Amino acid sequence: MTTPLLLNRRGFLLGGTAAGATLATGARAENMTVLTVAGFAGPFQSIFRSVVMDTFERKRPGVRVVYRPVMNSAQMLAMLRLERQAPQVDVAITDISISFLATAEKLLAPLAPSAVPNLAALPQWAQPDGMMGVAFSTDNLALLYDTRVLKSPPQSWLDLANPDLSDQICLPVEDTRGVVLLPLLTRMQGGDYRQSIEPGLALMRRFAPLVATWNAQPDLYTLLLAGTVALGVGWNGRGRMIAQANPGTLSAVIPSEGSVAQINTLNLTAHAPAGDLAQAFIDHALSADVQAAFAARAYYGPVNSRVVLPEALKLAISGPPDVAAKAMQLDWHFVSAHYSEWVRRIQREVISG
């Protein structure tokens, strides 16, 4: 068991440089054990803090959980690589493709079933071979639209080729959104992404002339709120969280052809400073009550099989039953292996083209 990091009465971290920044969070109590979690910034962070971190701290009064925000999983991977020799993060939240890559690069450590008993309540797809992390939640790729401009919600991914929306579309596909959209577009064209993604690229090229921006800065949701664009590709859960906070501005819809569920994972970093405490935290995050509460607040699908969601919440997360039935299950091991290649092809053959 790794010795946990301790804060002395002056608030300095014993045992290295890790988490000097944690002092800003208020972890100043004498002899507090510090656990550092790195994850997505924005609405995800605030809800994760409330539902997961705060409840863990209440269960363990001597523990202070610190959140280190990053913009995306690619930034997370870069951070883990940089800190390989002296990890400063105990638990890293990433999308599943990055979890595979981090596993291959030996940046992660395996979870012990005895330390994380809630693993037994997870389906096989949440613990795939070749990945040391474990699924925490799912979020569907969706169309996000400005309800002040589009009085009727879009119905199809092909609405991205609607000429009436010329120069009003944001297509931020140089990351995971593009990587998971390609297999879906390929399926819509009758192809199999494991054989070729050319059908998906061809359809994406049809959207290109209407695109106002490929690079959503600071993000798609802000552009929609500002009225800069009217339609874009983003994540259902985040879209609904932001829509709830800004009524009458934007909304999310899962198109009739179905969607792809992106999987967010919890990962124990190799040589995690907090040791076994980090595994206890992951177990807490996977518990049925925490999973249900997170789904209700964030509109992310739970992975614990013991969770039963209200019908209205299931509809908001996955769409109507006929649409949810069309959800595409990706071979994430295959997708992770081709992630960088597909991003380069999108950049070269769609955006630059």
How do you describe this structure in short?
With 353 residues, this protein is of the alpha/beta class. Helix content is 37%, strand content 17%. The chain has twelve helices and eleven strands.
Describe the model.
This protein has 353 residues and is of the alpha/beta class. It is 37% helix and 17% strand. Strands 1, 2, 3, 4, 5, 6, 7, 8, 9, 10 and 11 form an eleven-stranded mixed β-sheet that branches. Helix 1 (43-59) runs antiparallel to helix 9 (288-298), helix 4 crosses helix 5 (198-207) and helix 4 crosses helix 12 (332-351). The protein is globular and about 60 Å long. The N and C termini lie far apart (53 Å).
Task: For this entry, give a set of tags.
353 residues; alpha/beta; eleven-stranded mixed β-sheet
The computed structural class is alpha/beta
Number of helices: 12
Helix/strand order: EEHEHEHEEHHEHEHEEHHEHHH
Q: Tell me roughly what share of residues is in helical segments.
A: 25-40%
Write the layout of secondary structure elements.
Blueprint: E1 5-6, E2 33-40, H1 43-59, E3 63-70, H2 73-82, E4 91-95, H3 96-104, E5 134-146, E6 169-170, H4 176-188, H5 198-207, E7 211-213, H6 220-226, E8 231-235, H7 236-245, E9 250-253, E10 261-268, H8 276-285, H9 288-298, E11 301-302, H10 311-318, H11 321-324, H12 332-351
Parallel strand pairs: 2-3, 2-4, 6-7, 6-8
Antiparallel strand pairs: 1-2, 4-10, 5-8, 5-9, 5-10, 5-11
Helix pairs in contact: 1-9, 3-12, 4-5, 4-12, 5-12
